[in-house]
Amino acid sequence: MIRTNAKFPKKFLWGAATSAHQVEGGTHNQWTVWELENARAMAMKAEYHISDMPKWDDIKDYARQPANYVSAHASDHYRRYKEDFDIAKKLHMNAFRFSVEWSRIEPEEGVWDIEAIEHYRTYISELKKRELEPVMTLFHFTLPVWFSEKGGFEKRSNVKYFERFAEKVVQELGHGVRYIVTINEPTIYVYQSYMQGAWPPAKQNKLQGVHVLNNLIYAHKLAAAAIRDLSSDYLVSIAQSSVYIYAGDDSVLSSISASVLQYITDDYVLKRVVKHCDYLGVNYYYSARVFGYRIHNPEEHLSDLGWEVSPANLQFALERLYDKYNKPILITENGIADADDDLRKWWLQQSVVAMKLAMQRGVDLIGYLHWSLLDNFEWAYGKWPRFGLVEVNYRTMERKVRPSAKWFGTVIAKLRQ
Ligand code: BGC
After folding, report:
1. Domain ranges for the chain
2. pLDDT under 70 in the chain at which residues?
3. Residue 156 per-residue DSSP state
4. Integer Cα distance of 264 and 220 in angstroms
5. Nearest CA to ligand 1 atom 5
């Protein structure tokens, strides 16, 4: 259905997204352990692994240092969150996505840390004070060390620990929260941790990967049911990393390959969780154009991570997901690594137009959360990729709003009128 007058609704959520380990600093989880064990080797191998990055000359000094691969103080958001919320507010945002760090809340099996719970309680109330709608994630790639030593999500019998954590968090912190993301990007977690071996536990075992993926799907179902038992007012979803995949010509092979790839990256998980979601959380970063069984993208722009970026295709990703699953969509992440802030404004412009066009075609879109508010720890790449609307000086922790963000703030203000 084409709605020519589609406008961003008054209650549309405009905001930014973060995750605990990437911004908070001072976390202790399976990632922290892995970073300390691997930082030196990663720094030594940087030249070999990533010297083909578009801005290698600018990043090589960082990328060759072990400190780049250790999250340590990250962006110091655990202490500076009020300052960060003030910035979001000044940019006219009305929503904010964050994750609660399981390893802080349950540092040992069955032991709840009251101070950590209290911290997040205040955190959420500070968001509410500024009229920033909290979007709370329960699992964003990091696990308590005790849980990962038990085998993490490799064992179906461990899923009950996540269910218990989800229930506890929502009991303790759910007051004032409506939007909950149970699991961030299950497919990416499995791909990086169990297939590529790039993230802890750094395994390369496809069969085991599929098993973990099925356990994550099961974990979402159990957590969603436990949350709904507490109240039917909660709106629950996963955040799915959605790549828009399309055939580059009209050959049968291209179209079959595109569908198979789309199924593997997106639909395998979505088909299984959709009945247990109130909305769909979608993270969009790039597309893939398929010729035969090869990907060859037409894009001219590269992000600092070498991703061929196509923000305009967000429109088609949204239309596809809405046609197929018929659920309201919340964009839970969307952004670009761009240290010089050369492309971010263009990215944001294209994304806003893409959302508008998708809405005109009937997509029920409820919000847009940019990745990220702050520069942060980009997992195995460490600290050099800069995704923030706000630049963070990792030495002084000083925040500086990037020009693209200032511009975006004025756009949000207009679109919210
Ligand atoms: C993840 C974030 C990550 C971002 C950029 C998403 O896959 O949820 O944690 O920083 O993409 O790579």
Report:
1. 13-415
2. 1-6
3. G
4. 18
5. 378
Which amino acids bring their CB within 6 angstroms of ligand 1?
19, 22, 184-185, 188, 241, 283, 333, 371, 378
pLDDT for 383 equals: 98
- Classified as helix, coil or strand, 185 is coil
Residue 360: count of CB within 10 angstroms of its CB: 16
The closest residue, in CA terms, to atom 10 on ligand 1 is 378
Indicate the top mutation candidate among 98, 139, 333, 386 to test ligand 1's pocket, ranked by most ligand atoms within 8 A of CB. Answer: 333
Give the HSE-up count for residue 142: Cα atoms under 13 Å, Cβ half-sphere.
Answer: 31
Q: Measured at the alpha carbon of residue 23, what is the angle toward residues 22 and 25, in degrees to the nearest 5?
A: 100
CA distances from 367 to 131, 158, 230, 280, 355 (A): 15, 33, 25, 11, 9
Tell me the C-alpha distance between 88 and 309, whole Å.
Answer: 25
| Cα Rg, the chain, nearest whole Å | 20
**pLDDT of the residue at 5:** 60
Query: Which of ligand 1's atoms lies nearest the C-alpha of 285?
Result: 11
Q: Residue 367 corresponds to which tokens in the numbers above? A: 């919000």
Nearest to 123 by CA among 167, 168, 169: 169
pLDDT recorded at residue 2 = 59
What's the 17 CA to ligand 1 centre distance in angstroms?
Answer: 10
pLDDT in tens, 96-136: 999 999 999 999 999 999 999 999 999 999 999 999 999 99
Spell out where 185-326 has E strands: 235-241, 244-247, 280-284, 287-291, 294-295
> How many angstroms is it from 18 CA to the middle of ligand 1?
9
Quote the pLDDT of residue 299. 86
Query: Domain 13-415: which CATH class?
Result: alpha beta
**pLDDT tens sequence across 18-30:** 999 999 999 999 9
Spacing, Cα 141 to ligand 1 middle (Å): 10
